[in-house]
Amino acid sequence: MARGQGESGGDDPRPEGGRGSEERRPWRAFALVSGIGVELAAAVLAGVYLGRWLDRLWGTSPWMLLVGVLLGLAAGILGVVHLVQTVMGGTSRDGR
């Protein structure tokens, strides 16, 4: 058996969830916060650009821009909720 494999624990002296996972905890938090920022920014920017394009196309300035920002913000929030659920282990929609 390879080092650290098997149910008996092998030669790996670290207990599961030991120091290795403690050292990665700040990086996981940093990755989550970065992902939240990127998710929100990308969704809102996509809404802004889509809204501006539709405003130019239809001559409805600034209404489609506002709709695009609101839709982008809603999509970003949904994306953040999904991201946080994925990182934190997730729960089903009914809370079980």
TrEMBL record:
Q: Which InterPro entries match?
A: ATPase_put
Pfam families registered for this protein in UniProt: ATPase_gene1 (PF09527)
Listed A to Z, the keywords are: Membrane, Transmembrane, Transmembrane helix
The source's domain of life comes to Bacteria
> Which residue ranges traverse the bilayer?
29-51, 63-84
The ranges of region (Disordered) come to 1-23
Q: Where is the composition biased (Basic and acidic residues)?
A: 11-23
Name of the featured protein: ATP synthase protein I
- Biological source species: Kyrpidia tusciae (strain DSM 2912 / NBRC 15312 / T2)
* UniProt lineage: Bacteria, Bacillati, Bacillota, Bacilli, Bacillales
